[in-house]
Specification:
By secondary structure, this protein is an all-alpha fold. It has two domains: about 120 residues, no CATH class; about 50 residues, no CATH class. It has eight helices and two strands. The longest helix has 22 residues.
């Protein structure tokens, strides 16, 4: 979702990375899963994932930190910061709408943390994480990413490697041809 948001403006590689990262960084609070798995049969299991996932990174306080960092590192600050904030909040919205666990548990989002703990967001219509709407959204977003990669000459792979990104773009353009530049109206 963050990559799609980053495509809504003329951003450079770093700004696209900032906006994309803002859309995935709320799940940094899920990193405790590994510790929880590794210690679950120990005398003192760590319940970092159970206790902190959708808590530490899924709230207004963390959103403000991410937005401030986007402002600090973006070249075109207003656009980058606005899109990073949008990307972050779209992540929260997607979790609210479609992240129910296989056991039916809805992860409440304590949106006002650390300022207040009185507002935990849930939605009774939330669908499962592996439900068809999430799969459909994933396929649509992947299709858009591939189309924009072919058309614009950069893909999400650029976040990892420019060389690999170039290989992806070259492969797409060899398969589907080179996109025609919009030359404006043609005269007859």
């Amino acid at each position: 979702m963050g990559w799609t948001v980053a495509q809504t403006a003329q951003l450079d590689r770093r700004e696209r990375a900032i906006v994309c990262l803002a859309g995935v960084i709320p799940d940094l609070d899920g990193a405790g899963l590994l510790a929880e798995i590794l210690t679950r049969n120990s005398p003192h299991p760590l319940t970092w994932w159970s206790d902190y996932h959708h808590v530490l990174g899924h709230n207004l306080g963390f959103a403000l930190i991410v937005t401030a960092l986007a402002f600090a590192f973006g070249r075109r600050r207003a656009v980058t910061t606005g899109l990073a904030a949008l990307s972050f909040h779209l992540h929260l919205l997607c979790d609210l709408v479609g992240a129910r666990g296989p056991d039916g548990y809805q992860w409440p989002l304590p949106y006002l943390l650390p300022f207040s703990n009185v507002w935990n967001l849930t939605w009774s219509g939330q669908w499962a994480l592996n439900a068809w709407p999430n799969l459909m959204l994933t396929f649509v977003l992947l299709g858009l990413a591939l189309y924009w990669a072919w058309q614009r000459g950069h893909s999400p792979v650029e976040l990892i490697s420019r060389r690999a990104d170039r290989a992806v773009i070259d492969a797409l353009r060899q398969r589907f041809g080179t996109p025609r530049l919009n030359a404006g109206p043609t005269s007859s």
